[in-house]
């Protein structure tokens, strides 16, 4: 069995309320032994910590998702910051980023919120878990002043072009997160990944979303990460064991704080 790390799963979400413990067992049985959990916003922290603080191998992160930015964002972001500055241990700042797919109303506010959370990542020496949808120009604009800093992290759910990858990988402390999208029939990602070194890739599910083939359309879970690894084995023409080892090493380069707890 190949040991894998799911660098992005929302197992604390309500979609798992009926069988969360079983989902954890299924992940372990599939060889997915470490689960990194990005927070969503001020309303999700307690559910995430209730899970992570009672289960080995579950690592909480703290952040404010761009789609949660609304008219009350200052107060809500302050709640998240209080958690960050509490005695609770977090392993990354996330999920943060830019999302203009659904709504552009709070574009500028999203940029401000992202910038503040980048500063948290630098202050605490934690990796940044970055979500971006229909907003690459804005994301790169916010990131630009931090080029050359010690900032590290993951560009989560990468589905871009070779050119997008080059711009993102110019940030040398970052990896690209690859999930079930790579298994989709019409995905262009397999061709793009052939131009990207495996040493810059980490695996993720983004469960309960983006289930890989043959589970597409169903609820995703961490056990299905194996299907993503199998697809990468095919793309890179390397044994599954090597995919597991390399992507897990890559994850530990990002989540330095977690390394000692493995």
TrEMBL record:
InterPro entries: DNase_TatD-rel_CS, Metal_Hydrolase, TatD-like, TatD/YcfH-like. One of its GO terms (molecular function) is hydrolase activity. The keyword Metal-binding applies. Keywords: Hydrolase, Metal-binding. CDD domains: TatD_DNAse. It comes from the Bacteria. The keyword Metal-binding applies. NCBIfam families: YchF/TatD family DNA exonuclease. Belongs to the metallo-dependent hydrolases superfamily. TatD-type hydrolase family. This is TatD family hydrolase. It comes from Phocaeicola acetigenes. The lineage of its organism: Bacteria, Pseudomonadati, Bacteroidota, Bacteroidia, Bacteroidales.
């Amino acid at each position: 069995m190949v040991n894998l790390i799911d660098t992005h799963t929302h197992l604390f979400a309500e979609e798992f309320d009926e069988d969360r413990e079983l989902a954890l067992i299924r992940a372990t049985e599939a060889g997915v032994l470490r689960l990194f959990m990005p927070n969503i916003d001020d309303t999700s922290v307690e559910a995430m910590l209730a899970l992570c603080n009672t289960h080995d191998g579950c690592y909480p992160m703290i952040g404010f998702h761009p789609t949660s930015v609304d008219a009350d964002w200052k107060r809500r972001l302050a709640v998240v910051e209080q958690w960050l500055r509490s005695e609770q241990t977090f392993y990354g700042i996330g999920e943060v980023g830019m999302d203009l797919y659904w709504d552009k109303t709070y574009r500028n506010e999203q940029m401000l919120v992202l910038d503040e959370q980048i500063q948290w990542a630098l202050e605490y020496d934690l990796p940044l878990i970055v979500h971006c949808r229909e907003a690459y120009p804005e994301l790169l604009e916010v990131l630009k002043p931090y080029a050359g800093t010690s900032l590290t992290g993951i560009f989560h759910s990468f589905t871009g072009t070779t050119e997008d990858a080059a711009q993102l990988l110019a940030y040398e402390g970052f990896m690209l997160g690859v999930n079930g999208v790579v298994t989709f029939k019409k995905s262009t990602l397999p061709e793009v990944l052939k131009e990207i070194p495996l040493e810059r890739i980490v695996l993720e599910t983004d469960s309960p979303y983006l289930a890989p083939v043959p589970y597409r359309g169903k609820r995703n879970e961490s056990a299905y990460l194996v299907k993503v690894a199998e697809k990468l084995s095919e793309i890179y023409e390397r044994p599954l064991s090597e995919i597991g080892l390399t992507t897990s090493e890559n994850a530990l380069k990002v989540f330095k704080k977690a390394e000692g707890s493995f």
